[in-house]
Write a structure and sequence with these properties.
223 residues, globular, seven-stranded mixed sheet, Rossmann fold, 38% helix, alpha/beta
């Protein structure tokens, strides 16, 4: 992953962020060991704490995650859940499902997180909601469909957090015409151009966009 934040500044921010818990450090180490280069898909220490803070600040009791990977992000959010809170996490890859379930089972939050294997769009269709917090971190071409599917199931005052919305900085590199770069650019443009949504794009790690429904605005996302 290309650094989009000065590494020295990133290191300073990491050193001034509460350190990961022992079980999250274990998840990090095992993910890097077993998944090799794919470990870059895992949220890091700063983003993990950020997701925990989002869950805590919203008082989230029902969380939906699209893209479990090895479980780091789900476990981070679980630490910030409100009383009786639960996370439903969608994952397509069987290897990632198995690894994340092992990590979750070994954590203090085994009873709070359910990993559902299969296409996320089908899983979402079976869920009733409402969800206080939704975290989207999956295939970039699927982002519009995922947002379409979750917005009607978002609780009043709920938030959607979308990962990788700066896509290694390639969103501002016109020479990058890869499918993922173009998909992320199109998604970002669509979100900011929808008057029924309010968003803020943050330079946390690879870019995180927070989205909520605008007050007193008819939802116009689904077309």
């Amino acid at each position: 992953m290309t650094d989009i934040i000065d590494p020295t500044v990133e290191a300073y921010a990491t050193s001034h962020t509460s350190a990961p818990t022992a079980y999250l450090a274990e998840v990090d180490e095992r993910t890097r060991s077993e998944l090799g280069p794919l470990a870059g898909m895992m949220v890091g220490a700063i983003e993990g704490r950020f997701l925990e803070m989002l869950a805590f600040a919203t008082g989230a009791r029902r969380v939906l995650e699209i893209g479990t990977f090895s479980g780091y992000s789900a476990l981070s959010m679980a630490a910030g859940l409100g009383p009786g809170g639960r996370i439903t996490s969608c994952e397509l890859d069987p290897t990632h499902v198995a690894l994340s379930r092992e990590h979750i089972a070994a954590s203090p939050y085994a009873s709070s997180i359910e990993v559902v294997e299969g296409p996320a769009i089908e899983t979402i269709g079976r869920l009733d909601g409402p969800f206080d917090l939704v975290f989207i971190d999956a295939d970039k071409g699927g982002y519009p469909a995922y947002l379409d599917a979750v917005l009607p199931k978002l609780a009043p005052g709920g938030l959607v957090a979308v990962d990788n919305t700066l896509w290694h900085g390639s969103v501002v590199d016109a020479t990058d015409t890869s499918d993922d770069a173009q998909a992320v650019r199109a998604f970002n443009d669509r979100v900011v151009g929808d008057p029924a949504l309010v968003c803020v794009q943050l330079t946390v790690r690879d870019g995180v966009t927070l989205i909520r429904r605008a007050r007193d605005a008819a939802h116009s996302w689904a077309r």
